[in-house]
Amino acid sequence: MDQDMRDSMMGALETVIDPELGIDIVNLGLVYDVDLTEDGFAVVTMTLTSLGCPMGPMIVDMVKTSLYDLPEVKEVDVKIVWTPAWSKDNMSRYAKMALGVR
Predict the structure, then answer these.
(1) Fewest CB within 10 angstroms: 19, 27, 53, 100, which?
(2) Strand, helix or coil for residue 65
């Protein structure tokens, strides 16, 4: 997968807003990896802010919807992983400023 496609996928994922925090999942540092096979099978490896996140299923649905907007993407698999664990250190400078995290 080339860098342009990776950028397109990450750009699409920036439209997915965590309902509890109001910041997109990319700036929150929840997306660990994206991949796309030649036949259009997308895999997103990501985590959630907490193990029992009630918004998990909704976020997964939003991830799929955002990637289906890309013409190259035919199918999406979202892998939720807990290692490495998410921490505030994963957040972008923008997300930290928006949430007042130091």
Answers:
(1) 100
(2) helix
Cα 21 to Cα 5: distance, rounded to the nearest angstrom = 27
Q: What is the pLDDT of residues 61-75, one digit of tens each?
A: 999 999 999 999 999
Domains defined along the chain, listed by start:
3-87 (3.30.300.130)
> Locate tokens 């998990």: which residue?
56
**How far apart are the C-alpha atoms of 28 and 21, rounded to whole Å?**
9
* Helix pair 3-13, 56-68: axis angle to 10 deg: 130
The first and second tokens of residue 73, run together, are 């993407």
What tens digit of pLDDT does each residue of 9-23 get?
Answer: 999 999 999 998 999
Which of 8, 26, 33 has its CA nearest to residue 91? 26
**Residue 73 CB neighbour total at 10 angstroms:** 19
The type of residue at 31 is V
